[in-house]
Design a protein that fits this description.
The complex is a heterodimer of chains A (about 450) and B (about 260).
Chain A (H helix, E strand, L loop, with lengths): L22 H24 L19 E8 L6 H20 L7 E8 L4 H14 L4 E3 L4 H13 L7 E2 L17 E2 L5 H14 L5 E6 L2 H16 L6 E5 L10 H8 L5 E5 L2 H13 L6 E3 L5 H9 L5 H4 L3 E5 L10 H13 L23 H19 L9 H6 L4 E2 L5 E2 L13 E6 L2 E4 L3 H4 L4
Parallel strand pairs in A: 1-2, 1-3, 3-4, 4-5, 6-7, 6-8, 8-9, 9-10
Antiparallel strand pairs in A: 10-13, 11-12, 13-14
Helix pairs in contact in A: 2-11, 2-12, 3-4, 5-6, 8-9
Chain B lengths: L1 H71 L3 H11 L5 E7 L5 E4 L7 H4 L9 E5 L3 E10 L5 E8 H57 L13 H22 L8
Antiparallel strand pairs in B: 1-2, 1-5, 3-4, 4-5
Helix pairs in contact in B: 1-2, 1-4, 4-5
The chains are: A alpha/beta (about 450), B alpha+beta (about 260).
């Protein structure tokens, strides 16, 4: 299901009918092609040091007054909170940039398409964004099963030098050959997240670690991370249970809990989306599986917590065993410049969910969060892509993207960790943060042993 | 009165004869339909099952061939993505990939790997039938990855679906045969009736002729004007009857004097 909408919110929307091309855009495209042709060859050759064989071929994306970023993400379905919050965080920053004259005189616009966190629509959207919309780059994709399937499309269109920036997934396929050359990641990987969780559990004596995961590429990626981390300590997985992608909070996870209970684990690491993981944590608590239940960053912590607390008088007790890993610092940590800026811009713009997305599953209301880890990630994604585009000068071309990214070395994004890219380093940040619920928010976890003592 | 009873008995005898013929036709058609049905069920079942297993083996081999680089690169997310695409094929119910050491590297089971699968030989490649509680009955085939040194792909095909396919295929054939049976029986009844009616008329004529000889009543002419064998026989009988009557009148016939 391909959908198309404008960027939404604060005048950044771009709303063209599918396949339409105005006279102005035709002139722009033609002029752009003439201007870009000599540049393309030069920059393509300059960027060939890491992945030879690329040819400059991206002139159609040059626009006088705007740069269009193509987004295919979940704006409907059980994971709509992720796509929506990621979008809101990015919009807060882009609104700020655009209000202040844009990047080298060009506004940054997002072209949003809904894939509902389903692979096939994501593939169709990606083709549409590249072929029909001629977006400058792809940005803020959500999910492993979607991104994993979109990567071959980028390879197919490799001559057009379309890159995927900062997908909201920590899986390996966009970090490794044969597709790693088509993506740039900002967040740490699931391998790093799961390794951190395993290390911490083992450090407090919880050696029997089980995995509850979404039975697809995302879940398998996290499962593999846990397996590898345990193997480094000479341990094996205590047990595993799976669920189907798209499972809602109302579904019973009794079967999964019973499978894991039979293996007597000391901790469970969940690799899933917030609805299913909340359902699992709820049923685990209700069925007496009182052990730490960890989630990785993709889960969408605030969405998960809101579901688990909804309508429960014992909400704090019900969520006491949760621990979530994050790939951005706590949005409570206002000592960090980026977090302060995030608070300020989210409060100023409070971007609404994109209201004119043609959604795969219509009619689903969504309540936004003032702050969240996902929107903070969207915010820092937008901050860095803006910096990269700024570094490309007055006439940004796709053929110059790779070189511009590799020029980011020890860049201070304001999150307490410097960003660095290079031909052999296509992931900007490495830090993992651990958080636990405190009331309606997640706060940093300082003392693992004190929080999860072995009885 | 005696003649009437005799006539009735004769007609009944002729009808019984044709009823037997009709029953014979029906029985013959029934046997043909039953034999073809049994042969069809047996053939279709065997061929569909063979095709099913053959397809499973092809799919398993396809996955095995596609998995080599992915496995060697330890890219299990892509491996999972690969089998997720194959499991969308209608008849495939599950796929799992085991390493050379028997570890389950990727699978499609929800909520977990069944105990029967965990307990089975992870490197087995021959087709086996499995009954998994809560899931159903399956035929499972395996294919080695890199001659088995990188692992094994296992593909489970739904036997219930196979059963439905067999039922559908056989059902269509039996439906066609039943139509042929009913049409054949109806046609045979019509044909037998077609043949029996003139014979009955002939018989009635002969009886009437005999009765006329007793009562000297009117003749029965319908059957005499027929231009087929029955008409020929009726005319011949009339000729013989007339000849006999003439001979009797002349006293030269069998019924006459010396």
């Amino acid at each position: 299901m391909t959908t198309r909408i404008g960027g939404g919110g604060e005048g950044e929307a771009r709303q063209e009918r599918p396949g339409t091309m105005t006279r102005r855009s035709l002139v722009r495209s033609g002029l752009g092609a003439l201007v870009a042709a000599p540049w393309a060859g030069k920059l393509g050759a300059a960027g060939a040091h890491s992945y030879p064989g690329r040819r400059g071929h991206a002139a159609a994306t040059v626009q006088d007054d705007e740069i269009v970023l193509g987004v295919s993400a979940a704006f409907s379905g059980p994971s709509r909170g992720l796509g929506t919050e990621l979008y809101r965080g990015s919009m807060a920053y882009f609104n700020h940039v655009n209000e202040n004259g844009g990047v080298n005189g060009r506004r940054i616009v997002m072209k949003l398409l809904d894939d509902g966190y389903q692979p096939d629509p994501c593939v169709a959207n990606t083709i549409e964004l590249i072929q029909d919309e001629s977006v400058f780059l792809l940005f803020n994709y959500v999910g492993t099963p979607t991104v994993t399937r979109a990567l071959p499309v980028l390879k197919k269109f490799r001559d057009q030098q379309v890159y995927l920036f900062f997908p909201f997934t920590g899986a390996e396929p966009q970090r490794e050959p044969p597709y790693g050359e088509f993506a740039f990641n900002l967040r740490a990987s699931y391998r790093q997240e799961t390794a951190g969780l395993v290390d911490n559990f083992l450090s407090i004596g919880r050696r029997r670690v089980a995995v509850f995961y979404q039975n697809d590429a995302y879940g398998r990626s996290g499962w593999a991370g846990v397996r590898e981390a345990l193997a480094r300590h000479g341990e094996t997985m205590a047990g595993e249970a799976t669920y189907m992608r798209g499972t809602q909070f109302g579904a019973s996870m009794r079967g999964q809990v019973e499978i894991l209970q039979a293996r007597s684990p000391d901790a469970v690491i969940c690799i899933g989306a917030y609805q299913a993981c909340a359902a699992f944590a709820r049923d685990a608590e209700d069925l007496g599986l009182h052990i730490p239940v960890a989630n990785v960053s993709f889960v969408g912590s605030e969405n998960l917590l809101a579901l688990m607390r909804e309508g429960r008088a014992d909400a704090d007790a019900h969520t006491r065993f949760l621990v979530n890993s994050q790939v951005v610092p706590s949005y409570e940590d206002t000592s960090l410049p980026a977090v302060r800026e995030y608070h300020e811009l989210m409060a100023r713009y409070d971007p609404p969910p994109p209201d004119n997305v043609e959604r795969i599953t219509p009619g689903e209301p969504y309540e936004t969060f003032p702050q969240s880890f996902v929107s903070l990630e969207g915010f820092v994604n937008a901050k860095l892509i803006t910096e990269i585009i700024r570094r490309m000068g007055d006439n940004p071309q796709r053929s110059g993207i790779e070189e511009a990214v590799f020029a980011v070395r020890d860049y201070d994004l304001g999150v307490g960790e410097r960003v660095r890219y290079g031909p052999d380093r296509r992931q900007g940040l490495q830090m993992i943060y651990y958080t636990v619920p405190e009331g309606e928010r997640f706060v940093p976890l300082e003392d693992w042993g004190g929080r999860f003592p072995i009885s | 009165m005696t003649a009437m009873i005799q006539k009735g008995e004769e007609v009944l005898r002729v009808r019984k004869l044709f009823r037997k013929t009709r029953f014979g036709f029906f029985a013959l058609f029934g046997i043909v339909v039953l034999s073809i049905s049994i042969l069809s069920i047996s053939t279709v079942s065997r061929e569909l099952r063979d095709e099913y297993v053959s397809n499973s083996e092809s799919i398993a081999k396809n996955i095995a061939d596609s998995s080599v680089d992915i496995l060697l690169n330890r890219n299990l997310a892509t491996l999972q993505s690969l089998i997720d695409q194959f499991v969308q094929i209608e008849s495939i119910r599950y796929i799992y990939i085991t390493s050379d050491t028997g570890e389950f590297l990727a699978h499609t089971f929800i909520p977990g790997i069944p105990e029967e699968i965990l307990a089975s030989d992870p490197s087995a490649t021959e087709a086996v039938e499995r009954s998994l509680p809560g899931l159903g009955d399956f035929v499972e085939v395996g294919s080695p990855i890199l001659s088995g040194v990188a692992g094994t792909v296992h593909v489970g095909m739904d036997l219930e679906l196979l059963g439905l396919k067999i039922q559908r295929a056989v059902g269509q054939q039996i439906y066609l045969l039943c139509i042929i049976l009913v049409t054949g029986v109806l046609a045979s009844i019509w044909l037998v009736n077609l043949a029996s009616r003139p014979l009955t008329e002939l018989l009635e004529y002969v009886v009437t002729l005999a009765r006329e000889k007793e009562s000297d009543g009117s003749t029965h002419g319908d059957v005499l004007v027929r231009d087929d064998e029955i008409g020929d026989m009726a005319r011949m009988m009339q000729y013989v009857a007339d000849d006999l009557a003439f001979a009797k009148d002349e006293g030269t016939g069998p019924g006459g004097g010396d």
